UniProtKB/TrEMBL annotation:
Keyword line: Glycosidase, Hydrolase, Membrane, Transmembrane, Transmembrane helix
Residues in the signal sequence: none
Record GO terms (molecular function): hydrolase activity, hydrolyzing O-glycosyl compounds
Lineage start: Eukaryota, Viridiplantae, Streptophyta, Embryophyta, Tracheophyta
Sequence intervals crossing the membrane: 30-48
Domain of life: Eukaryota
Name of the protein described by the UniProt record: Packaging protein UL52
InterPro entries: Glyco_hydro_43 (IPR006710), Glyco_hydro_beta-prop_sf (IPR023296)
One GO-annotated biological process of the protein: carbohydrate metabolic process
PANTHER family, per database record: GLYCOSYL HYDROLASE 43 FAMILY MEMBER, GLYCOSYL HYDROLASE FAMILY PROTEIN 43
Family the UniProt entry places it in: Belongs to the glycosyl hydrolase 43 family.
Length: 471
C-alpha cells in the first residue's frame, strides 16, 4: 500500500498541469493536495475492501470443508495424584525432594499419567482394521503400518512426490534398546537409520524400509551406531532430478553439532551418505530444510548452543549452504523448527529447549524467509491449560501443506518417551492460518500484519472425505 501511495503521489506530482498549478500559488497547491489526499483515501478504502472480500471468499470456501477441524475441543483429563513411590529413573531426573509436576509424572514410566499418554497396543490406529475408525487420527496412540508394525519415523518430515503423487514420510528408526551412554548422558538409541513410509492419503502408510542405514563396523563413520542421527528431511531437486536428505549428525555427547547430507535417485532410496559439516562454521543441532515455491531451498538450524536459529539458502544442487546466513530469534532458545508458507508469508513453529520433556510451542512469522521473524505466541488451542503449555505433550517436527485445502495443514509432532524411545508417539493435529494473532508486534496502517497460526487439539479427527482427490 505504501508503494501504491508513493507512486500515485509521484505520478500526480509529475503531471505538467499539476506542476504548473503547484508552481503558481500556495492556495492552489493546498487544493491540489487535498484532492490528492481524497484520491488516496478512496484508493485505500477500495484496497482494504477488496482485501476483506478476498479474505471472506477464501475463508468461507475452505471453512465449509474444514470447519470440523477448527472446532475447539476441551480435554478434562483426570490426572491421578502423584504416588509416594517413584521409579529410580524419575528420582534420578528430579531428585527425591521436589514434588513432581505433571510433566515429571508424564516422563515417569511407572506413573499412571505416563500410561494415559502412551496407551497400549489394544487401542492402536490400525489401517488394516477398516470400519468406523477408518481415516481417523488418534494423536498419541500407537500407529501401525500396513503390515501391522508400529511406524518408526520419529523427528520426521514428509515429502510429496509430484511424479508418483505419493507422500513419503521419513524419520528416525528408533526400534532398539534405550540406554544412557554414560551416567550424565541423555537417553539414546543407537543409530539404526532413516525409515521411509509411503502413502496416498496421509493415513495408511506402507513401510518402504530403511533408506539410509547406520554403520555397524567403521567407528570413525558419521553414521556409526554409537553416534546420533536426528530430524532427517528430504527435498526434491527439480534440476538434478535427485532426492536430497539433510539431517542432524552428532556424537553421543552432542559436541559434533553438524549437519549431514545424503542423496538418492529415488524417493525410496537407498540414499548415499555424502558428508557432514558445520554450516557457516557454526554448531548446528535441531534443524530442518524448506523448499520454497521458486525451487530455492533453505537450511534452518539451532546454533550458538541453541540460543538462536540460523537460516541460509542452500546451493542450487542442495548439497551445501551458501555463504549467506542470518541469525533469527536471537536469545530466544528455540529448537525443533517446522516451516511452512501460506499466501506469501512464511511461518514457523518451534519448541523450547528442555531435552525430551515437552514445553510450550511458539509460532513465528516473516514476510521474507531470511527475516526479520516475529514471534506471535502459542499456537495451541483446545485441550486444557496443561495441554496447551506442553504442545499437547509433544514437540514440533514438520508442517504438511494439504493440497486442495489451502490454509489447512497438518502439524506433525513427536511425543517422546525417554524411558523407551522406540515407543515415542506421533501427535498429528490440524493447523490453520487465519484470524488475529495473539501478539501482533507490527501494525500496518492499524491492521495487524500477521494472521494467527492455530493448532487445534482433537482426541480423534480426520481430514474431509476425499480431500486428496480435490488436489
Ligand atoms: C460402528 O458404528 C456403528 C454406529 O455408530 C456402531 O453401531 C457399530 O458398533 C460400530 N462398529 C464398530 C466395529 O465399532
Ligand atoms: C570409515 O569411515 C571414514 C569416514 O567416512 C572413511 O574415511 C574410511 O575410509 C572408512 N573406513 C573403512 C575401512 O571403510
Ligand atoms: C562423552 O562424555 C563422557 C563424560 O564426559 C565421556 O566419558 C565420553 O568419552 C564422551 N564421549 C564422546 C563420544 O565424546
Ligand atoms: C561448501 O561451501 C563452502 C564455501 O561456502 C566450502 O568451503 C566447502 O568446501 C563446501 N563444502 C562442500 C562439501 O562442497
Amino acid at each position: 500500500m505504501v508503494e501504491t501511495a508513493r507512486s500515485l503521489a509521484v505520478a500526480v506530482n509529475s503531471h505538467p498541469v499539476v506542476r504548473i498549478l503547484l508552481g503558481s500559488r500556495c492556495s492552489v497547491s493546498l487544493i491540489v493536495w487535498s484532492l490528492v489526499g481524497c484520491i488516496l483515501m478512496i484508493h485505500f478504502y477500495s484496497l482494504i475492501h477488496q482485501k476483506d472480500r478476498e479474505k471472506i471468499h477464501i475463508g468461507s470456501s475452505h471453512l465449509s470443508v474444514t470447519r470440523e477441524l477448527e472446532e475447539v475441543e476441551e480435554e478434562s483429563l483426570y490426572f491421578p495424584p502423584p504416588r509416594g513411590k517413584r521409579s529410580p529413573h524419575a528420582l534420578k531426573r528430579r531428585g527425591p525432594r521436589k514434588p513432581p509436576s505433571v510433566i515429571d509424572e508424564f516422563l515417569d514410566e511407572s506413573s499412571e499419567v505416563h500410561a494415559l499418554f502412551f496407551p497400549h497396543r489394544k487401542s492402536a490406529v490400525n489401517p488394516n482394521k477398516k470400519g468406523n475408525d477408518s481415516m481417523y487420527y488418534y494423536p498419541g496412540r500407537l500407529w501401525l503400518d500396513t503390515e501391522g508394525n508400529p511406524i518408526q519415523a520419529h523427528g520426521g518430515g514428509i515429502l510429496f512426490d509430484e511424479r508418483t503423487e505419493t507422500y513419503y514420510w521419513y524419520g528416525e528408526n528408533k526400534d532398539g534398546p534405550t540406554y544412557q551412554a554414560h551416567r550424565k548422558g541423555a537417553a539414546r538409541v543407537d543409530i539404526i537409520g532413516v525409515s521411509c513410509y509411503s502413502s496416498k492419503d496421509l493415513w495408511e502408510w506402507t513401510n518402504e524400509g530403511i533408506v539410509l542405514s547406520g554403520e555397524e563396523t567403521n567407528a570413525s563413520h558419521d553414521l556409526h551406531v554409537s553416534n546420533v542421527l536426528e530430524r532427517p528431511k528430504v527435498i526434491y531437486n527439480d534440476v538434478s532430478d535427485r532426492y536430497v536428505m539433510w539431517m542432524h549428525i552428532d556424537d553421543a555427547n552432542y559436541t559434533k553439532a553438524s549437519v549431514g547430507v545424503a542423496v538418492s535417485d529415488s524417493p525410496t532410496g537407498p540414499f548415499t551418505y555424502l558428508y557432514s559439516f558445520r554450516p557457516h562454521g557454526f554448531d548446528s543441532r535441531d534443524m530442518t530444510v524448506f523448499k520454497d515455491d521458486d525451487g530455492k531451498a533453505y537450511l534452518i538450524y539451532s546454533s550458538e548452543d541453541n540460543s538462536e536459529l540460523h537460516i541460509g539458502p542452500l546451493t542450487d544442487d542442495y548439497f551445501n549452504v551458501t555463504r549467506v546466513m542470518r541469525r533469527i530469534l536471537v536469545g530466544q532458545h528455540r529448537e525443533a523448527p517446522a516451516l511452512f508458507k501460506y499466501q506469501g508469508t512464511y511461518y514457523m513453529i518451534t519448541s523450547g529447549c528442555t531435552g525430551w520433556a515437552p514445553n510450550r510451542a511458539l509460532a513465528h512469522a516473516a514476510e521474507s524467509i531470511m527475516g526479520p521473524w516475529e514471534t506471535m505466541g502459542n499456537p495451541c488451542i483446545g485441550g486444557n491449560k496443561i495441554f496447551r503449555s506442553a504442545t499437547f505433550f509433544a514437540q514440533s517436527t514438520y508442517v504438511v501443506p494439504l493440497l486442495g485445502l489451502p490454509g489447512s495443514f497438518i502439524f506433525m509432532a513427536d511425543r517422546w518417551n525417554p524411558s523407551e524411545l522406540r515407543d515415542s508417539r506421533y501427535v498429528w493435529l490440524p493447523l490453520t492460518v487465519g484470524g488475529m494473532a495473539d501478539e501482533p508486534l507490527e501494525y500496518n496502517f492499524g491492521f495487524p500484519l500477521w494472521s494467527r497460526v492455530s493448532i487445534y487439539w482433537h482426541r480423534r479427527w480426520r481430514l474431509p472425505e476425499g480431500w486428496w482427490r480435490t488436489a
